[in-house]
Amino acid sequence: MADTAPPDAQRLAEAAAEVMMESDRAARRLGIHVVSVAPGRSVLRMVVRREMLNGHDMGHGGMTFTLADTAFAYACNSHNQSAVAQTAQVTFLRPTRAGDVLTATAEEISRGRRSGIYDVTVVNQRDEKVAVFRGNSATIGGTLVPEAPAAH
């Protein structure tokens, strides 16, 4: 999607992601970083650390959900319209382990003036799907990059 985005829309998506990451203390604390962002799309990555394991010595599902939710947030805010999660659902497909490198790819399915639908796929370093996530966003008004008008 980044290859087909108009240059201004791509720059706006990147600027919005930079603003978000500057104030996203949770993502930074968990070691989540942006691999790429484009209008309606984001790719984020995180390494599963030992302190992210549950009582079964597997990656805590909440950590995988947080990565997917964060990718969703970067995708639905990539048009420089402030948006938050309205609903989200995750399905865990396989466990994660300490040292796994998880990559979450969020794709915009539908976007209207007030809401959007985004699918996120989370894979490990072997490209095995570990979770799928669907989020519905709600636009709350305002922009992330103040000097740029919101794209419609």
* Mean residue pLDDT: 93
At the third CATH level, what is the topology name? Thiol Ester Dehydrase, Chain A
Q: What CATH architecture label applies?
A: Roll
- Major sheet description: 6 strands, antiparallel
Low-pLDDT ranges: none
CATH superfamily annotation: Hotdog Thioesterase
Radius of gyration: 15 Å
Number of domains: 1
State the share of residues found in helices, binned by percent: 25-40%
Structural class: alpha+beta
- Number of E-type strands: 6
How many helices? The count is 3
DSSP strand content = 35-45%
Strands of the widest sheet, in order across it, are 1-2-4-5-6-3
What does this structure look like?
This protein has 152 residues and is α+β, with helices and mostly antiparallel strands. It has a single domain, classed as Hotdog Thioesterase (Thiol Ester Dehydrase, Chain A, Roll), CATH 3.10.129.10. It has three helices and six strands; from the N terminus they run ααββαββββ. It starts with 6 loop residues before the first helix and ends in a 13-residue tail after the last strand.
Concise structural overview:
This protein has 152 residues and is α+β, with helices and mostly antiparallel strands. It has three helices and six strands; from the N terminus they run H-H-E-E-H-E-E-E-E.
Keywords:
36% strand; 3 helices; Thiol Ester Dehydrase, Chain A; alpha+beta; 152 residues
List the helices and strands and how they pair.
Layout: H1 7-23, H2 25-30, E1 33-38, E2 41-47, H3 61-76, E3 83-92, E4 101-111, E5 115-123, E6 129-139
Antiparallel strand pairs: 1-2, 2-4, 3-6, 4-5, 5-6
